[in-house]
Specification:
Mean pLDDT: 80
Protein name: Disease resistance protein At5g05400
Helix content: 55-70%
Strand content: 5-15%
Low-confidence stretches: 1-23, 92-101
Keywords: Coiled coil, Plant defense
Strand order of the largest sheet: 1-4
Order of helices and strands: HHEHEEHEHHEHHHEH
GO molecular function: ADP binding
Organism: Theobroma cacao
Number of helices: 10
Number of strands: 6
Distance between the termini: 101 Å
Structural class: mainly alpha
Pfam families: NB-ARC
Radius of gyration: 35 Å
Shape: elongated
């Protein structure tokens, strides 16, 4: 037989637990203040790292900029919320005789929610680094040296192919464009062609772009890749042409395109 009295101790314990959690709202307000202080300290530490990076003429990472915006917004919000929380903690009802438990309950929920948001911001602020050296500034002297080496290699009759490689964003395209400019000014070649291999995407498109730049016109009946390659090869052998293939990300069949190489 069901006896409700058997469940009264457990229910009372649950009520007392909930009552205890909302009885002292000042502890919740203090908890929120401590979390805000942690966030302020974290912001100050990251700012110090940023100041050092700026002093060293480094470029601040976009993620760090976004973090500062989110943190500053949250700190501004918390100033208002702490003031409201302190007012809520003092609220009373029934002719000021009893604490307003409903308000305090909502206060506890709000503080716990804000604490989680701040905790996430603290985790997001654990950066491995706050800045990087701008691509345009990476080893400028080294780049000048590489430029000089490439130009010298282009002047060497025994060199027919030069490779420029490196991580994305370090300025390889900028470097080869400067090579092309200087080679043109120095009249090292009769013609110049530069094709973005990734954008062209396939052999046929590469052939078409290359043909346009070396003044080669394919007739309507030449729509076979192999025949186009023969025409390109003949044209390149008949003139001294600098061909620059930029942004190569996978193995490229030069023979299929029509670019002669080797001896």
């Amino acid at each position: 037989m069901y006896n409700i009295l058997d469940h009264i101790p457990a229910a009372a314990q649950c009520i007392l637990y909930t009552f205890d959690r909302i009885w002292d709202p000042d502890k919740k307000v203090e908890k929120l203040k401590k979390e805000v202080d942690k966030l302020k300290n974290a912001r100050n530490q990251v700012q110090k790292s940023v100041d050092v990076a700026i002093k060293n003429e480094q470029e601040i990472l976009e993620g760090v900029h976004r973090w500062f915006i989110e943190v500053d917004k949250k700190l501004t919000e918390e100033e208002v919320k702490i003031t409201k929380a302190e007012e809520t903690a003092r609220k009373r009802c029934f002719l000021e005789s009893f604490p307003n438990f409903m308000s305090r309950y909502h206060l506890r929920k709000e503080v716990d929610k804000e604490a989680k948001v701040i905790d996430q911001l603290l985790k997001d602020g654990e950066f491995d680094g706050v800045a990087h050296i701008p691509a345009s500034d990476i080893s400028f002297k080294s780049r000048e040296h590489a430029l000089a080496e490439i130009i010298n290699a282009l002047k060497d009759a025994n060199v027919n192919m030069i490779g420029v490689y490196g991580l994305a964003g370090v300025g390889k395209t900028t470097l080869v464009k400067e090579v092309a400019r200087q080679a043109k000014e120095s009249k090292l070649f009769d013609a110049l062609a530069m094709v973005d291999v990734t954008k062209a995407s396939d052999t046929e498109n590469i052939q078409e772009e290359l043909a346009d730049q070396i003044d080669l016109v394919f007739t309507d009946n030449i729509n076979i890749t192999r025949l186009r390659a023969d025409r390109i090869r003949q044209k390149l052998k008949s003139t001294k042409t600098l061909v620059i293939l930029d942004d190569i990300r996978s193995r490229l069949n030069l023979k299929a395109i029509g670019i002669p190489f080797g001896h």
